[in-house]
Specification:
Strand order of the largest sheet of chain A: 2-1-3-4-5-11
Largest sheet of chain A: 6 strands, parallel
Largest interface: A-B, 69 and 68 residues
Oligomer: homodimer
Distance between the termini of chain A: 68 Å
Low-confidence stretches of chain A: 333-340
Helix content of chain A: 40-55%
Order of helices and strands of chain A: HHHHEHEHEHEEHEHEHEHEEHEEH
DNA sequence: GTGAAAGCGCTAACAT
DNA sequence: ATGTTAGCGCTTTCAC
C-alpha cells in the first residue's frame, strides 16, 4: 500500500481513504490512486484490514452435510441475501462429523467473522454457547435446541407431517403408513407427530401404521418397501408418507417391481422436497422445505443481532412449509406431453 | 494474549511459543499457559496470526455451482484430504455467475489463502492469470483451458463418452442417439467426441443420431424424449446416451409414458453419475465422475506447487472415468429383492 | 483534503 | 527455557 502511495504521489493515509471512504477524497487524487492500484496490481490484505478495523465483512456458514439439498439451498439463500448487504458467506462442510463441526466453528471464531450461521444435525447447544460466549453472534438453522439462547430459523416440521397426512386423507386415503425410523433426529420426530395429529383428527376413520427403518437412505427404503408391499396386497394400506423424499422414491421402486400401481393402488409421498427427487418416472408429491428462505432469514436475523448489540432479544423464526402436489399421489400428468 | 501471559505469569512470547512451538516450552509452563487459556476462554486471532506469520493454513475453493453433485464431491474430497494435512478448505459458491466467481477469487486473494482451487463452468483463464500474477498458487478443476499455465485436474470426458457408447454397443445396441445440446460446454463437446469415436470404430455397423436440447435440465429432456419416442417406434433407435443423468431420467420418464420399455425397447444411460440419479424406478447406468478423487488430487497438486516454489512445473492430472452399470441398460435387478 | 503517527494481536529473531 | 522487541499491512484519529 505504501508502494501505491508512492506511485500515486500521495500519502499512505490517502490510499486508505480511497479504499474505505472514497467520498473523502478529491476526484483527481482518487483517479491517480486508482490508477496506481491498477498499475501495481495491488490487492489489499484483508487480514491486516480486519485486524486494524476490528470488523469483518464475512459470515461463516457451517453445515453438517453439504450433500443434503436442504443445506445447499440454505447456503444459496444466505449467500444471495448477504451479497445484497455487501457481505460474503464462507461455507465450511462438517461432513457429518461433530468434531469437524467444532473445528469449523472454531475456525470462524478465530477468523473473527462478523457472525456465524450453523445448520447442525443434532443438538449443538454446547458448541453454540462456547462461540457465543466469545461474543460472536450465532444463528442456528433447522434445529430447535429448546433453550432460546440464540436466534433460530426453523421450518415447522410438525406442520410438514400434518400437511402430508392431511393431503393423503383429502385424496380419500384412509389406511396410512408413516415410514422413517431414527426418531432421535428432530425433523423425523416432529413430522411423525404432525402425521399423528392429522390422523387423530379423523377420529378412527383413518388408520396409521408406523414403519421404522434402519437408515434414511435408499437401501432402508427398499427394505421397508418390501414390508409395505405385503400390506398393500392385504388391503391394509393405501397411502404412504415417507419421512424423506429419497425413502419415498425407493419405496415406489419396490412397489413398481411388485406391480403395485402408484398412485392407483397406493399413494406415496415424501416430506422434504429434494432436488434428488425430481427424476423418478413418477414425480413425487412432497413438502417444500423453503431452504432459500431459511438462509435468507438467518442472515437477516444475524445482521439484526449485530446491529442491536447488547440489548438484543433472541428471535425464533418459524417458516411454514408448503405442499407440492405431483403425480405420486394424484395420478399421471407430464407437462411436456399434455395429451397423455 | 497478553492477558493469558499475565494470568499464567509468563511473558507474551512464551504464550506464542505454547501455541506455535509447544516443544520449545517446558511441560510445567506449558500446563500453566494452557490453563490460563482455558480459564480466559482465549481464542487466537487468526488475522493477526496470519499477518505476522505471513502464511495461511486455509485453501479457498471456488465452485461455480454448489447444487451440482460433482462439485459437492470435489469439495468433500478436497476437504478430507486437506484435513489430513492440517489445512482447512473454505468453499465459496459462485451461483453460476461469472462476476460472483471473480468476487470469490478476489476475496480469497485478499485473504491471502495459501492457495486456490477453482472449478469453473467455462473458461476462466483471465481470472486465473490475474490471481496467479499475484503469486497465489491456483489449481483448476474440471476445465481444460488448453494453455498449460496452471495445474489442472481433469476427468477424461472423451473417455466418458467413449465408455458410454462402447457399453451400449457391447450390449448389442446398434442404433444410438446422443442427447445434449450446448456444445459450448466443454464436457458436452468432449463426451460427444468420445461417442463418435466408439461409433466410428464399428465402421457403419452402428448408427448415431445427435439430438440437441435447448437446456441440460429435465424439461429439455422431456422435449427430447418426445422426439426420441417417435424414433424408437419407427425402429430407428435402440440406445440413448444422455449427456447428463438428469437428462437421461427425464427421457426414461417420457418413454415410460409412451409405454416404451427400458431397457427392453431401448437402453438409456447417463454420463455423469449423479446422486440425484438414484431415485428412478429404473436405476440409470452412468459413468462415475470421480469427484472425491478430483478434489483430493487438486489439493495434492496445490500443496506440491506451494512446496516447489519458483521452480514448479505445472502438471495436468487426467482421471479416468468408470462405467457404472445399472438396470436402465441391462434389465431389472433390485438388490433388496433378488427373486424378482 | 491531506499527511504523520499510534496501534490492531500476533510471530520470530534476539538477547538473557 | 524465557523475556524483549521490532515489525506484519492496514485504519484511523489528529493536526496541518
Amino acid at each position: 500500500m505504501a508502494d501505491v502511495a508512492r506511485v500515486a504521489g500521495v500519502a499512505l493515509g490517502t490510499v486508505s481513504n480511497v479504499l474505505n471512504h472514497p467520498a473523502k477524497v478529491s476526484p483527481a487524487t482518487l483517479a491517480k490512486v486508482q490508477g496506481a492500484i491498477a498499475e501495481l496490481g495491488f490487492v489489499r490484505n484483508s487480514n491486516a484490514q480486519q485486524l486494524a478495523a476490528g470488523r469483518s465483512s464475512s459470515i461463516g456458514l457451517v453445515v453438517i452435510d453439504i450433500s443434503n439439498s436442504l443445506f445447499v439451498d440454505i447456503a444459496r439463500g444466505a449467500q444471495r441475501f448477504a451479497a445484497e448487504l455487501g457481505m460474503n458467506v464462507l461455507v465450511a462442510n462438517s461432513d457429518n462429523r461433530a468434531d469437524q463441526q467444532r473445528a469449523d466453528l472454531d475456525f470462524f471464531d478465530e477468523a473473527r467473522v462478523s457472525g456465524i450461521l450453523l445448520a447442525p444435525m443434532e443438538d449443538a447447544s454446547d458448541d453454540v454457547a462456547r462461540i457465543r460466549s466469545h461474543g460472536r453472534p450465532t444463528v442456528v438453522l433447522n434445529y430447535d435446541s429448546g433453550k432460546a439462547d440464540c436466534c433460530q430459523v426453523l421450518i415447522d416440521n410438525e406442520e410438514v407431517g400434518y400437511l402430508a397426512a392431511r393431503h393423503l386423507i383429502d385424496m380419500g386415503r384412509t389406511r396410512l403408513a408413516f415410514v422413517g425410523g431414527r426418531d432421535y433426529l428432530q425433523p423425523v420426530a416432529l413430522r411423525r407427530r404432525g402425521v399423528r395429529r392429522a390422523v387423530e383428527e379423523e377420529g378412527g376413520r383413518v388408520s396409521l401404521q408406523e414403519v421404522p427403518t434402519e437408515n434414511l437412505d435408499p437401501p432402508g427404503g427398499l427394505r421397508a418397501g418390501e414390508e409395505l408391499a405385503g400390506e398393500v396386497r392385504a388391503g391394509r394400506l393405501d397411502g404412504v408418507i415417507a419421512v424423506t423424499d429419497l425413502l419415498g422414491m425407493a419405496i415406489i421402486q419396490v412397489f413398481n417391481a411388485h406391480s403395485i400401481e402408484v398412485p392407483g393402488d397406493v399413494a406415496v409421498m415424501g416430506c422434504d422436497h429434494n432436488s434428488a427427487a425430481w427424476g423418478g418416472m413418477i414425480p413425487l408429491t412432497s413438502v417444500q422445505m423453503q431452504g432459500l428462505d431459511m438462509g435468507r432469514e438467518a442472515v437477516r436475523l444475524l445482521m439484526a443481532e449485530i446491529e442491536d448489540g447488547a440489548d438484543h432479544v433472541h428471535v425464533t423464526t418459524m417458516l411454514q412449509p408448503e405442499l407440492v402436489v405431483r403425480e405420486s399421489t394424484v395420478g399421471r400428468r407430464i407437462a411436456a406431453n399434455p395429451d397423455l
